[in-house]
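Lab notebook, bench 4. The sequencing result for the construct came back, and we need a structural model before the next group meeting so we can plan mutations. Quick request posted to the team channel:

Model the 3D structure of this chain.
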Amino acid sequence: MLIGIVSDSHDNILRIGQAVQMFNSQSVALVLHAGDYVAPFTIAEFKRLNCPLIGVLGNNDGDHELLEKRFSETSNCTLHDRFTQIVQEDFRIGLLHGDETELLSVLIESGYFDFIVHGHSHVHSIKRRGKTLFINPGELCGYLTEKSTIALLDTTTKEAQIIEL
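Done. Here's the predicted structure in token form:
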């Protein structure tokens, strides 16, 4: 299974559209968003995905109520609060924004998850600790690093890669 990973889109409609196009062209089965959509109007872009999107809230997501409403108006997007666990193909995936650094560290150290997806730092990374692969796709918006990045996770090989848009 191929999973698309994105975080920190921060209202950048152009980059969101490019990410959606890339995920659709790669025929990903699922997209995970690790938060910081910022404004609810951006959710409309994610409706164009050819697969489900599961997301969590980030520290810069202001109007939680309206974000939840926009997500509920889509047939393919689901929003959780600050953390969720996803089980796909017998893999446990932890999804959180990552600004709660102590929680992130505990989740990584626990060894409970096969994959942990997070964002917040705007710096992409793929690391392994024991059996857990933890992935930060970097920033989709490209505002801080001047690089717009996403990640692809292949659950068959248990490997991920960063893609610059």
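The longest strand covers residues 83-88.
Will bring this to the meeting.
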